[in-house]
């Protein structure tokens, strides 16, 4: 089965390290034949949230916002990548994702967290689980944490540390299970609302 998966990433920092995690996940998903859309907050820079996509009159939303809305509505699932900022998620990520709501409903999300230190962004991942659930996305039970990102991934997302490659297969197997199950439910039964 083929899946359309959106990878969300929200850092605006000049020397952003998490882009390595984004590239790594995109590469892994593409190897598994996913149609991947990369939703980078820098590329989809809508500014600080003033009006959600649904609050625009039909056809009046900014073109890039409407483009991403269509990708979200037609996605099978999401991989959401965040570093840890003050024990929480990146503000650029939450701002980007907050522009939408109903478009996410009944599609699974997988959490990837990272840090330059040893904790792997674990506290951000916990915050992200609550954030995504509130937006209508069930999260898979596994969290893919990447500690010391500079030591384990190259700039292009390739591996410096093979143990990361061994862990990612099971993580993506779980995401695909949920993508397939929820896609089947949406197709056969529709959604409750």
Strand-pairing-aware structural class: alpha/beta
Characterize the largest beta sheet: strand count, sense, and whether it forms a barrel: 5 strands, parallel
Number of domains: 1
Q: Radius of gyration in whole Å, from Cα? A: 16 Å
Q: Count the DSSP helices.
A: 6
Give a written overview of the molecule:
It is a single chain. This protein is of the alpha/beta class and 193 residues long. Helices cover 40% and strands 17% of the residues. The chain contains 6 helices and 5 strands; from the N terminus they run βαβαβαβαβαα. It has helices at residues 18-31, 63-73, 91-98, 122-134, 149-152, 162-189; strands at residues 4-9, 35-40, 77-83, 109-114, 139-146. Strands 2-1-3-4-5 form a 5-stranded parallel sheet, with helices on both faces. Helix 1 links the parallel strand 1 (4-9) and strand 2 (35-40). The chain is globular and about 45 Å long.
In terms of topology, how is this protein built?
Elements: E1 4-9, H1 18-31, E2 35-40, H2 63-73, E3 77-83, H3 91-98, E4 109-114, H4 122-134, E5 139-146, H5 149-152, H6 162-189
Parallel strand pairs: 1-2, 1-3, 3-4, 4-5
